[in-house]
Amino acid sequence: MTDETGQDKLWGGRFSEPTDAFVEAFTASVGFDQRLARHDIRGSMAHARMLAHVGVLTEDERDAILDGLDAILVDIERDDFAWLTELEDVHMNVEARLIDKIGDTGKKLHTGRSRNDQVATDIRLFLREEIDIINAEIRRLQHGLLDLAEREADAIMPGFTHLQVAQPVTFGHHLLAWFEMLQRDWERLADCRKRVNVMPLGAAALAGTSYPIDRDYTAELLGFERPSRNSLDSVSDRDFAIEFNAAASLIMMHLSRFSEELVLWTSAQFDFIDLPDRFCTGSSIMPQKKNPDVPELVRGKTGRVFGGLISMLTLMKSQPLAYNKDNQEDKEPVFDTVDTLRGSLRAFADMVPHIEAKRDNMFAAARQGFSTATDLADYLVRQGVAFRDAHEIVGKAVALGVETDRDLSEMELAELQQFSDAIGDDVFEVLTLEGSVAARDHLGGTAPDQVRARVKEGRELIAKD
Ligand code: ARG
Q1: In the predicted model, what is the mean pLDDT of residues 8-17?
Q2: Is 407 near ligand 1, meaning CB less than 6 Å away?
Q3: 116-360: which CATH architecture?
Q4: What is the DSSP string of 300-312?
Q5: Does the domain spanning 12-111 belong to CATH 1.10.10.60?
Q6: What average pLDDT does range 145-156 have in this prediction?
Q7: Rounded alpha-carbon distances, angstroms, from residue 288 to 12, 265, 294
Q8: Residue range 23-77, pLDDT digits in tens
Q9: What's the CA gap between 166 and 161, in Å, rounded?
Q10: What does pTM read for this prediction?
């Protein structure tokens, strides 16, 4: 059947009237799935090679198809390819062009396959490539964090709980917390990649095909770990994409928390760090402003990635087996997630190595909130006082500090001794911020030596891949 624009539909045989023009535009995906063209062509080439390998195509037919597809790829990359809505999607645009270019042999490419296994293959090839790029970007950010953590291994800042000053920590230690989160993110994507890297081709529309196909052969050509095991599942499964969106959501959640801290720390109230001007912008009305736009925007972009995950889950939740047109809606949330994630990671990987710590301000802030109060309690415990009693004693000392506007380390020994005679003049060693962080010298603790050891370990870990 020829449509209103005179274009022959590749599936038009059984139809007696042209597709409604609005329906044609409404159901088309070529506007966005043309992004899969390179992968689609790669999949088609492997399919054609396999068909020749098993004798379904002659070598001449195979070569004509491969040459035609090569030429189409060149046209697409040169932006010299007219994408037609009437041809619905990337698959039929490429196939129709192949038939235009090489004639009837082009009509043989679709033997033993369907757009259903074809599109599932394309998304998997696309995601596999993107996961590799994203994981390399995570590594770049981790490198930046390790370098910065090493530089700031001794810098002391307040550690917070409830955003109230809690105990002193080293800035290096704080940075390494983000390294850990990103390490889990990297591992999650690497794990997701295993399930992405399975080949659906051969499932055809849903039931497989009656041609003597060799799926292992195609899988090997495309670098897939193995062919999938059930044709119905192969064309309907989008778990791998949902998993990707879930892993991406966790990464964005981490980057958003990271962003929030950077925004707080660049504020005049904290004034812990400086971000390079090139990662900030000014205000059109307030000349003094330097706004942390990059972290703010990354924090904001987290929403669309979470949204993509919910879209994908909802898209799949009620679909009966096997393929349904609903699945066409899988592409935009995945594409948008890939773009948002890549952009956000790139911005952070570029910016983090240039974070400048304002060490004096961090140090001064750590002195303000009685952050060594726990150290005093631990000191008393070492002198034989029970922890609960020690807690009470230190609470009283803190109350005096609040009243007289002084830190514990600024009090006279005699003042401290009125609360407990277990206090000796060696107490001041633990009341200093340096003494407090150095004392937490165990695996996972905040001591500068621990930070340096973790940086070394982190470098070895990420050098492995
Ligand atoms: N454009 C479709 C998609 O994105 C390709 C598969 C169409 N298959 C079908 N039987 N209509 O899912």
Answers
A1: 85
A2: no
A3: Up-down Bundle (1.20)
A4: HHHHHHHHHHHHH
A5: no
A6: 98
A7: 65, 17, 18
A8: 999 999 999 999 999 999 999 999 999 999 999 999 999 999 999 999 999 999 9
A9: 6
A10: 0.94
